[in-house]
Specification:
45% helix, kinase activity, Euk-type_GlcNAc_Kinase, 2 domains, Nucleotidyltransferase, domain 5, ATPase_NBD, ATPase_BadF, five-stranded mixed sheet, transferase, alpha/beta, 318 residues
Length: 318
C-alpha cells in the first residue's frame, strides 16, 4: 500500500481490534485478536505482536487504547516497552476508556461510561483536564460490568437451588436455558459445578452470562430487571461522581461496551442521569481520530462524519 494510512488498536479485556484507515477515511483492514488486558491475560504481549505484524509501509501514526494502561506503573512500563519494540512510526498510548471517550465526543467534553467485561467512567473537559472513576478490577471493583452482573446472577442461581431464595424462582428456568444448564434444580447444581471446573478464563466466561440476564430483563423477567437496575445504580454513581468533580461544566454522558448495548440498562441509568448521547465514533474510531491528528491530517467535522460512516459499514458501530 502506497497511500498514507494510520492505525488504531482497541485493546480490551475480552477482545483486541486493530483498524487501519486511509487519509480519505476509508477502512483498509480490521484485525481481531483475543483480550490484551495484562491484569488477567498472560499472553497479552503475543496478542499485540500478532496484530501488529506486517503493517503497511505507508503507515504514518498509530494510536493505542490499552486496557489497564496507567493503572499500574509496572504494567504500564511493560506495555510501553512492548509497543516501542513493535512500532517504528509516531505513536501514543492511552487507556482504552480514554480512547473511547475521545471517540464518543470527537475530542470534546463529556463522560464516557464503559461497561464491558469490566467497568469505568472517564470524564474530560475537552482540553487537558481529565478524571476517571471506577475501573478497579474484578476483585474489588468493576461494579455494573458484565462480570459483576454475571457473578450476581450465579450467586442468585445458587441461592435458588439450595432454597435460600424462594421469591425469585422465576429466574431459574430462563437463565439455565440461556446458560445451557438443566432446568431441573436437582440436576442443575452438579452441572453448574462441572461448568465451573471446566473454565479456562473465569472472568470472560462469567461476563458472557450478562447477555442472558439482559435478554431476560428486556423480555420482562422481574428478577432480571431488578438485577439490571442494581447494575444501573452502580453505573449511574460513576457519572454522578465525575459531574461533581466538574461542577459548573456541562457534562453529557455517552457509552461504550457490550453491556451498555442493553436498552433496559441505558434507560435505567437515564432516569438518574438524563438521556445519553449516542457516541459519534466507536472506541477504535477515537483511536483513528487521535492517530490522524498525530499524523498532521486535517480532521474537520466532515472527515469525522465520513469516518463514522465507514466504520459503521465495516461493522464497527458506536
Amino acid at each position: 500500500m502506497s497511500e498514507p494510512c494510520i492505525a488504531a488498536m482497541d485493546g480490551g479485556g475480552t477482545k483486541t481490534l486493530l483498524v487501519i484507515a486511509r487519509q480519505d477515511s476509508t477502512i483498509v483492514e480490521i484485525r481481531r485478536g483475543a483480550g490484551s488486558n495484562p491484569f488477567d491475560q498472560p499472553l497479552w504481549r503475543s496478542v499485540l505482536e500478532n496484530l501488529l505484524g506486517n503493517l503497511p509501509s505507508s503507515l504514518e501514526a498509530v494510536s493505542f487504547g490499552l486496557a489497564g494502561y496507567g493503572e499500574s506503573e509496572t504494567l504500564r512500563s511493560r506495555q510501553d516497552e512492548a509497543v516501542n519494540s513493535l512500532i517504528s512510526v509516531p505513536f501514543f498510548i492511552k487507556n482504552d476508556v480514554d480512547m473511547a471517550c475521545t471517540g464518543a465526543f470527537a475530542g470534546k467534553s463529556g463522560i464516557l461510561l464503559l461497561s464491558g467485561t469490566g467497568s469505568m467512567a472517564w470524564g474530560t473537559d475537552g482540553h487537558k483536564r481529565q478524571c476517571r472513576v471506577g475501573g478497579w478490577g474484578a476483585l474489588f471493583g468493576d461494579e455494573g460490568s458484565a462480570f459483576w452482573i454475571g457473578r450476581k446472577a450465579l450467586s442468585l442461581l445458587t441461592e435458588i437451588l439450595d432454597g435460600r431464595n424462594t421469591a425469585d424462582a422465576n429466574f431459574l428456568a430462563p437463565f439455565c436455558e440461556g446458560a445451557g444448564l438443566p432446568k431441573n434444580p436437582e440436576l442443575c447444581g452438579s452441572a453448574l459445578l462441572e461448568w465451573y471446573a471446566s473454565l479456562t478464563h473465569e472472568r470472560s466466561s462469567v461476563a458472557a452470562l450478562a447477555r442472558i440476564v439482559s435478554g431476560m430483563a428486556e423480555s420482562g423477567n422481574l428478577t432480571a430487571q431488578h438485577l439490571m437496575t442494581d447494575a444501573a445504580d452502580e453505573l449511574a454513581a460513576h457519572i454522578k461522581a465525575i459531574r461533581t468533580r466538574f461542577a459548573g461544566i456541562t457534562m453529557p454522558w455517552s457509552y461504550a461496551g457490550g453491556t451498555l448495548q442493553s436498552p433496559f440498562l441505558r434507560n435505567a441509568i437515564a432516569r438518574q442521569c438524563g438521556a445519553p448521547i449516542k457516541p459519534i465514533l466507536p472506541p477504535a474510531g477515537g483511536g483513528l481520530l487521535s492517530a490522524a491528528r498525530l499524523a498532521g491530517w486535517n480532521c474537520e467535522p466532515e472527515w469525522i462524519d465520513r469516518l463514522a460512516h465507514n466504520l459503521h459499514e465495516s461493522g464497527l458501530s458506536s
